[in-house]
Amino acid sequence: MREIVRFLYGDELVEIASSDPTQTLLDWLRLERRRTGTKEGCAEGDCGACTVVVGRLDGGRLRYEAINACIRFLPTLDGCHLLTIEHLKGADGRLHPVQQAMVDCHGSQCGFCTPGFVMSLLALWLNEPAPELGRIEDALAGNLCRCTGYEPIITAARRLYEHADRTQDRFALSVPGIAARLHAFADQETLTLAHGTRRFLSPATADALADLVISHPEAVLVAGATDVGLWITKGMQQPQTIIHLGRVEDLRPISDEGDHLRIGAMANHIDVRTALAVLSPQLDELMRRFGGEQVRNAGTIGGNIANGSPIGDLPPALIALGATLLLRRGSERRALPLEAFFLDYRSQDRKPGEFVEAVLVPKLQNDALFHISKISKRFDEDISAVCGAFLLHLDEANRVSEARLAYGGMAGIPKRAAAAEAALLGRDWDEAAVAAAIAALPRDFTPLTDMRAPAAYRLKVAGNLLRRFLIETTALDVDTRVAGLLAEAAHG
Prior knowledge:
Elements: E1 5-9, E2 12-16, H1 25-32, E3 51-58, E4 61-68, E5 81-83, H2 97-104, H3 114-127, H4 133-140, H5 150-163, H6 170-173, H7 175-185, E6 191-195, E7 198-202, H8 206-215, E8 220-222, H9 228-233, E9 241-244, E10 254-256, E11 260-264, H10 269-279, H11 281-288, H12 293-298, H13 301-307, H14 314-321, E12 324-329, E13 332-337, H15 338-341, E14 342-344, E15 347-348, E16 355-362, E17 369-375, E18 386-394, E19 400-408, E20 415-416, H16 418-424, H17 431-444, H18 455-473, H19 478-490
Parallel strand pairs: 1-5, 7-9, 8-9
Antiparallel strand pairs: 1-2, 3-4, 3-5, 6-7, 10-11, 11-16, 12-13, 12-16, 14-15, 17-18, 18-19, 19-20
Helix pairs in contact: 2-5, 10-11, 16-17, 17-18
């Protein structure tokens, strides 16, 4: 057991023997270290003004990631390398190439969001040698500019790659030395911090995690804190015991098991996207809109599922695919269909002392029809009003032999539309079948009205997404589509 958090802050070794388990990295930087270049904007991981870069060992390789400091708990930095905006300016006073490109292209207006943009670009710069324009835009999607100055910022990113020499970047040159120092920190000890009556526990192995979860069934399990962080910054909660899963490397691997993928619960959304994109470009596009880059770097598939949000985007897709969840309690393991895990709003089939270990995702068969749609007010970095994921198999006569229609945002849990599925089975895959399924949706769902959408809108969208699925998977001609839409409008 170890009772000291150790991480590198630039070149400085930081050791902390006592810390509030949920003290945010942002508060530590600004209030204790007086490093005020990192800004507080939303305090919920949305705006990117607090973006810093964190390096961690990943399979022995040093991997740098942009993350939101406002919802990252300080003790979770154990074994990491932290860079903030203050580290970029060289000892000789020269700006880093990322900063210089921003200056040359007038990429800063009021300047409040600028440090976050710079740090997001630094993470991209350190990890990717030649990103395309679309990749640059994705990397910056987690940063909001209130001055609407995106074009010069994107121009600065392109200029950076056109004129700067990555091989001479001092951060890139320091990677072997930093990696060696982090390797020296690595151990199999469980990190334990106390702060009054509150505790932070961080095991290094899945076996140690299993023991801790049984010993502390009341503890809050934290992976990336992309949701739990808001309990602290917005809900002002103070959990007594935090169990952090970030050091459990044996929960991170993603493996191809032939007819399915096995995805460890601690695989982050960046790696999950890469794996799922092989199964379907629809999954790739869904994950591209999964929060911003900072959220995808921190958030994990296990955390997203165990959180149990009814508006999480990934569960409907995984349910439609027929995913299976692996749960562990001590040395015992059990498997259950993912759709059976969600019982009620924020209630899951998870026993005290049990945690999500992995997700098994079946590969799509060659004849499968598959579609995902996410509807939100804002394209990037927004939670769904409705998310629909559909999987069909047709027989030789073009009749529906299997239907899996899963929705998020339509109920207190992500769930299948059983009545709509039944309306499709045995029918030709055509407009009439879809109309019957749409008519059955009110028997499956009684959606709520909230800030994201009214109930009537959600039902309308849920049906229209199913019709979009038909249009995209058939040679339905325009006249037939229009006639169907007009008939629907005529009946209200």
